[in-house]
Amino acid sequence: MKAYVFPGQGAQFSGMGKDLYENSEIAKELFEQANEVLGFRITDIMFNGTDEQLKETKVTQPAVFLHSVISAKTIENFKPDMVAGHSLGEFSALVANGTLAFEDALKLVSKRAMAMQKACEITPSTMAAVLNLEDKIVEDICATIDGVVVAANYNCPGQLVISGETQAVETACKQLLEAGAKRALILPVGGAFHSPMMEPAREELAAAIEATEFHTPICPVYQNVTAKAVSDPNEIKKNLITQLTAPVRWTQSVQQMIADGATQFNEVGPGKVLTGLINKIDKTVEALKV
Fold it and tell me: I need a surface site. Which of 62, 155, 224, 272 has the fewest CB within 10 A?
């Protein structure tokens, strides 16, 4: 069975999507449609912008989403048996399996980016990558720290990202290193994604998601929140709302997809981050960048 997976924020690069725009009429139409929906020419920044311009909140998430979705739309005989996306990538996955219409998903992604930016400005917050420590030890240490700090991204065995108030994350990093972590590294991000700090963004996005039509998908999506196959539109909607404040269970999602019969993983979109993570989760499964 073929699984298609879609990357999240951080995979962007200057020049992304230019080849698609120049070589595919479908891609060109969708990019131009996106420019209209967003109210600015995101293609100019994607194709020719600097890394700094690509990091702007209103650009980053829509850019990664557009590259992923439009790449999928140009794949011949695109027939996924299952899909998943890492954080933001879940929106790309939901277009790929027919749950969301392209334009509706783009509007939600744009709103999500703005809502997250606003939430980041309320309290100083950050994220940190913790390497070579068991998940349970990381969770237990986070639970003892004063302030908000939680496990946010279960990326692969031995790689867990924590998220929360800056002071609490810094304190946790010190204790995690003392507990034997190889590294506990503060990440260059705008705030504490996938933590309770995103509650204001979750509330704002919830209203937009509730007002959007979700269709019955052609194949299940393995959602970040549950790491299980979901095909019911109402359940997908509920999990998508919860996603902003809940951890990304990527390790568990990939393991479940393999248990459910996935034999080949195809990463669609910018970068090869997910291919690398899948290889670390299970070396026996085929993981390709398409």
Answer: 272
Residue 64: half-sphere exposure toward Cβ, Cα within 13 Å = 31
CA 202 to chain centre: 15
pTM of the model: 0.96
- Exposed/middle/buried for residue 285 (C-beta within 10 Å: 0-12, 13-18, 19+): middle
Pairing relation of β-strands 125-131 and 183-186?
antiparallel
| 133/223 Cα distance (integer angstroms) | 25
Residues 23-41 pLDDT 10s: 999 999 999 999 999 999 9
pLDDT, tens digit, 9 for 90 and up, residues 204-251 = 999 999 999 999 999 999 999 999 999 999 999 999 999 999 999 999
Query: What's the first-to-final CA gap in the chain, in angstroms?
Result: 16
User: Exposed, middle or buried, 152 (CB in 10 Å: 0-12/13-18/19+)?
Assistant: buried
Q: Is 103 left (phi over 0), alpha (psi -120 to 50) or beta?
A: alpha
- CB 26: neighbour CB atoms within 10 A? 11
DSSP helix/strand/coil, 216: coil
Neighbouring CB atoms inside 10 A of 122's CB total 12
Cα separation, 68 vs 62, whole angstroms:
10
**Beta strand pairing call for 82-85 and 264-267:** unpaired
Residue 215: DSSP 8-state: P
Closest residue by Cα to residue 284 from 260, 247, 255: 255
- Residues involved in catalysis: 87, 194
Given a cut of 90, whether residue 57 has pLDDT beyond it is no
Instruction: Give the HSE-up count for residue 271: Cα atoms under 13 Å, Cβ half-sphere.
Output: 19
Token readout for 254 is 């990939």
Q: Are 223 and 238 in contact (CB under 8 A)?
A: no
Confidence of residue 190 (pLDDT cuts 50, 70, 90): confident
Q: Which residues pair with 289 in a beta bridge?
A: 267
